[in-house]
Structure formats: C-alpha cells, structure tokens
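Example with several molecule types.
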Amino acid sequence: MPQKLQTPIIIINFKTYTESTGQKAIELARSAEKVTRETGIQTAVAPQLAELATVTKAVKIPVFAQHIDSIKPGGYTGHVLADSVKEAGAVGTLINHSERQLKLSDIDEIVKITKEKDLISCVCANNPTISAAVATLEPDIIAIEPPELIGTGIPVSKAKPEVITDTVKLVRKVNSKVTILCGAGIGHGEDVAAALKLGTQGVLVASGIVKAKDPYTVIREFADASKR
Amino acid sequence: MPQKLQTPIIIINFKTYTESTGQKAIELARSAEKVTRETGIQTAVAPQLAELATVTKAVKIPVFAQHIDSIKPGGYTGHVLADSVKEAGAVGTLINHSERQLKLSDIDEIVKITKEKDLISCVCANNPTISAAVATLEPDIIAIEPPELIGTGIPVSKAKPEVITDTVKLVRKVNSKVTILCGAGIGHGEDVAAALKLGTQGVLVASGIVKAKDPYTVIREFADASKR
Amino acid sequence: MPQKLQTPIIIINFKTYTESTGQKAIELARSAEKVTRETGIQTAVAPQLAELATVTKAVKIPVFAQHIDSIKPGGYTGHVLADSVKEAGAVGTLINHSERQLKLSDIDEIVKITKEKDLISCVCANNPTISAAVATLEPDIIAIEPPELIGTGIPVSKAKPEVITDTVKLVRKVNSKVTILCGAGIGHGEDVAAALKLGTQGVLVASGIVKAKDPYTVIREFADASKR
Amino acid sequence: MPQKLQTPIIIINFKTYTESTGQKAIELARSAEKVTRETGIQTAVAPQLAELATVTKAVKIPVFAQHIDSIKPGGYTGHVLADSVKEAGAVGTLINHSERQLKLSDIDEIVKITKEKDLISCVCANNPTISAAVATLEPDIIAIEPPELIGTGIPVSKAKPEVITDTVKLVRKVNSKVTILCGAGIGHGEDVAAALKLGTQGVLVASGIVKAKDPYTVIREFADASKR
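Resulting structure tokens for the full complex:
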C-alpha cells in the first residue's frame, strides 16, 4: 500500500447522500482533486457503485468502492464483484464500514480477494479491539470509526482521543505496517491535525465534507492541517 | 408498466459472470439491442452496478439494476440508492432475486420506492405461493424462478410447467395487471415459446445467454420464438 | 387454527426483557393462566427459547416460541428447529416479528413447516400491504404491528385505527379464514376493546404487560375488556 | 477458563440433528457424563436452546448454548439473551460456528457479554487467519473448524494437519492463554490423539458422535485417546 498511496491521506466517503449522487459526485471528486493538485496532500474518494465509472473517468485521484462482496465470478445477482469495480477504474475498496458490517469470514475473504486483484483494502472498525482483530488479517488500511460519533460533528480525535491511541497501540502489537486512519465527526482542520498527532496517517471522512456548504473549502482546510 | 415496456420481453440478467463484466457487458448489451432492432421484440439488460452507467450510455434498450436497497438518501455506505441507479440511466431494477433474497418488509419498501422514483420493479419469486404474496405488493413485473433449476439448462417451462401455470393462476387471483415472467434453465427458443404459451409475458434469463458461445444468436433465437 | 385456539385471544410476547427472563417467565405465565381460569378468555405466552420447556411444564395455557428457523433436522448449529420447540411443549410460534424479520422465502418455508408439524403459525406484519402478502401464505394468525408504535404505550387501535381497518380489508380480500391480531402500544383494556371493535380477534402484546408493575392486573383488565 | 474447565476437553455440539433433539438430547448428554465419570476426561455438551434447561437439569457436566446474540435485556423478540441461557444452567456458549456466522462486531460484543456474565466463550473460526483475528478478542476457547471438512468424516487432524499447526502458531503470536480446540471430521480416537499432538487442548465434535450408532462407545474412545 505505501507504494500506492502516499500519507497523510484524506479519504472522502460519499455514502448515499443526495449531495454526492449523480452529477454532484463528479463535482465533489473534482474538488478533492483540485485540493491535491494545489497542496500535494493525497485525497481519495469513495462514490456509490453506480457512479464509480463516471467518477474514475472524471478525476485522476484514487477512487475507492464503498463495498465489495466476498465472491468470485459466477451467479451472484445483485452482488459486487471485485473485477467489476476494478474494471470501472477503482484502485481499492472500503470494507466493513459500520453502516455495512460483514461477517468476520467475509472480511477475511474480501481482504484476500483485494490482494489477488491488486486492490487497496481499507477495513473499517468500530473500536480498538476490533481494529486489532482486523489488523491480523493484514489489510492495507484500517479506519477506526466509533459509530456513535459518525455524522455527529463531534470529532473522535477530540472527543475520544483514547479510542485512537488505544487503537494505534493494539494494532501495532500485531501489525507494524498497516496504515491507520480515523473517522467520525471530523469537520475541521484541527480535528485532522489532532488525528495525525495521535498516531494516525490520515482520516476517513463523510458528512463533514459531503454535506458542507462549500466542500472544496473544507477539503482544503483538511489538507492544510495535514501539512502541520 | 405496460405503457413503459412492451411485451413479450426478454430480460437478460448479467449476474457477476466474467463473460458479462467490464467491456464484455457493453458487447452483450449491444447484441441484445441489435436483436430488438432487427426483430422488434423487446429486450432489456441487467448489468452489474459498476457497469450501469457505461451500459446505459452504450445502448438504447432498457437497462435494469440487479438490486437496490430499501433506503432513502443518507448515511448508508455500501448500499444502493434508487436515485443513483436512476441517474446512471437505469429504467428499473430486479428485486429479491433468489441469489439476493430480501426481507418481506424490504421488498414492500423497495417496490414503494420504485413507484416514487418512477422505476420499473421486477420482483423475483421462488415458487407460486411466494409469487402470489409478491403480487399483492403490486410490482410492475413478477419473475418466477425455481432456484433449483437456475443455471442448470433444464428449462422451467418444460421441466416444471405446473410451476408456471400455478403461478399464473395464484397471481391472477390477487393481481390482474402485473406482468409475469419466468426464468431458470431457459436456453432455447422453444423454452421461450413454451413459457409464453403457459401464460407468461416473457422470460428472465442469465447463463443461457451470458455463457453462450454466441450470445447474439441465442438472443435472436429467443426473439424469433417470442413472435410465435 | 380456530379449532385449536379460541378467540378473542391475548398473546403475550415475553421478548428478552429482564422482567420475563428465568424464574420470572414462569410467574408471568402463571398470571396469564390465572386470568384464563377466572375469565374464560384465552391467553397464550411466548417466552424465550431457553425457558420454553420450563414454562410449558408450569402452565396449561398455550405456549408459543418467539421464532423458528426455516430448517429441517441437520447440521444447523445455533438455529431453531421446529421439532425442538414442539418437543419442548410449544403449540405454535411467532414468525417474522418486526424485531426478527425474515426473508419472504423463509416466511413461506416456515409456515409450511408449521403445517407439517401441526404447530400454530402467527406471522407478524408491519403494515396493511405486508399483512395482505402474508395472508396469501395462509398462516393461522396474522399480527399487524406498526413498528413505530411498539413499546411506546401509544396504542395502535387508538392512534392508527386505519392501519387496523385497512389490514382487515386487504387481508380479507385474499384470505377469509386467518385470525387477525393487532399489537404495538396496547396498555389498557380500552385499547383491547377498540382492537376487537375494529375487526381483529385479539391482541399481541409485550411491554404493556411484561413491564407493568402488576402484570396480573393488566392481563385481567385486557381479558375483561375482551368480553365486551 | 482454565480454572473453570479442565483440558483436554471434548465438546459435543448437538446441532439440530434428529438424533439429538428432545429426549434424545438427554440420553446423549448422559452418555457424555458417564464417560467423564469413568475416565476423568472432561466432556461438555451443546444442545439446542429449547433443550438447554432439561439437559442442564439431567447432567452434571458443563452445558453450552450453541449461540447467543449480541443483545442486552430489552425488546429483541426471537433473539438469545445471555441471561436466559445462564439461568437455564449453561456455563458457556459457542459463538460464530461456521453454520451460524456473525459479524465481527457482534463476535466482539458477545465475547464482552460472556465476560460480564461469567460465561465461557468458545469462538469458532474457519481458518488460521480468522483464528488469529478471533484470538485478539480474548475469548476463553477458540475452535478451528475448516467448513469444507465438517460432517465429512475426514478428520482435520489427519487430512489438514497444517491447518491446526498454522492456527496454533498464529494464535500463540497474539494470545498465549486461549484454549485451542479443533473440529471437523473427527470420528475416531486416533483423530483426537492427533489433534492433541498437533498442539490443541481438545476437540469440538458433532456428527462423529451424534450420528454414531452407539455414541457412548465413540465418546469413550475419544476420552481414552485423550489420555494418550
């Protein structure tokens, strides 16, 4: 992973908000790309599946899927095949987001599939213990997000710094290489700076940017804060 | 629905086969479009989500999603929002395919969402009883597919004609308008003709076309058989 | 069903409350039994699975499971086999409660299993449309419970009488025999009387009784109101 | 755990077989108890939930539930509350059996609940990687069972010894205390002896005993082989 994506990194999860659906997904991705061009700080976006192909065509920053299934090619109507997101131009995928939680055996299987297909895996975890469990599966990225703070505007890096430091400590015991991000409630540059200071290599952020009046300004603020 | 799609109709479910992933999805959709142009028989395709936008741009025949979730815009990472498939150009969606079965309350909710968003709903059902239950929810299309025949090449219309006639009978008791399709094992023109003779208005087909050596020829055979 | 259970009927769902766990489950079941003995009104109880055998031994009123799975005997660790609840003395089971919703095909399969095993099926439904869909599967009992009122103390029979009358109307169109119950927010005798007047044959009730200071008194009030 | 259960241990998973349902569950548990009395080797049984209370009353060996849910007391119809299995006399529970797989966050939560309630946790895992992930959650017992061998009669300890040795190695890297069992295909004393020699502290077994013509003889053979 480190060879593929530079850190610190800001990954923007588009979720299924109106503000990031259809044509708006492209605009949002372009704002992120602009910030990367201006600041040199790595940004990435995770739009909905139906917009994956159009977003990857529109921007040069890395694009993630929000989810893939633990399947190989075959008869799996309505599921998400790794090959299809890769052919659509995605470089990686979120896995096990707290809004799309998976069975442990599926997380294990999906991480293995991403390695085979040379996709970057970003596995989400709710708490430090789960982060450590995930770390043993050797994904490229772990994103710790306490679900109770998601979408609240109360930044994990300030409200629950111990969640981050505990995560870093427990994860590093079992995995020295994985990139660690944090998320939930991140809305200001200082939240990003705090996250980095606590030992993470970046943030996974959604509503703080997607639902902002001016997303570009917020992404730029995040990027500037990442330079410390 | 009848005002939106003409019958008889051949809906091709691309599933997650290698033969219908990426660029191949576009070729397959073009074969279906060619048959419709040549024969006047309605075809439609249901590619994977990541290919929805590129397929809808490439062809003029109706394109379905393979699945949408029972969600409104919001924080639902990794889920499929009706608005996103609609903005990608889809005119409808499969729902409750036997490989992606849903809770009853989700089927009810998704059918309601498709009505709001003016999308065509095609709800799949495993047997005649379930078809009748689905029919009370008033979707546009019901597709009866006995799961034990899916992918076998043993056509439901010949191996289990009573499944189709029972379905038509039970469904019509509670719903006089819904379009009824059948699927599973359909591989030859005569299977399609048999399905229509048993009271259906078309077929939902996957491997019989997707995995055929020459998909165009099979679709054409299906279309010719649909003219009776 | 009518030959098995008389109506009006009050079915008490014990859920997984502390007030209905362990020894307390037996006391609660005995209160219901006492009311039936005193008033002649049919009551029934649905304790947790781990207490099924002890409750059926302690009382003579009908005992339901809260859930069974769509399985036959075999290798299904952690699932609930119809045979096991029957051997534990249950006469029936709740199915698809809004807190334990099932795939449509599983509801269909479980109703069929209850018929084979001569168990009474009580399928729960969230709204009138879903109730009608369920009715086509021909269960013994349907219980309509708007999830937004469950546990609120706001009785469906008074707050949303049209949900009940619409359910009765839609269900009777497709099934003339099924017993119709309603639930959610039922806390007083007058709520039960209102439910019966709106066309139901009884109530499915949980917190209104389980969490009452004196459950016996509430069950008695319900039974008295059922006599009209 | 070591203070609660001695090792080597033979845990018999009753699953939902006819041969272990109802009265037969009690007989089977008594066979296990008899072997423990005769040989001093620890056996334990995991009957279905509806038989938990009767089995715990009938025997003195430890009894496990096959599954509990990640819930606290409340409105969770059809779910399995830790308190209820404890009040029914269980000393622990299987978690995440390959036939009842769970989301990672639920496994984490259930292990925490078992600690609070002083229940023994036995988390099942499909492969060495998943075993290591589970080990970081600090359950009392891990049972590695390759799903492809379950119920086959092909013993994991002989067919795939490297699965066991890899599991022991990966688990011990992150957890020095957890008891490690193996399962799948175990049918003879020599399979048990092989499992112990490979570094486990016992076996989790189902059909090899439950479906044996004479379960007592097989359990006795397992116990004798455990003495080495």
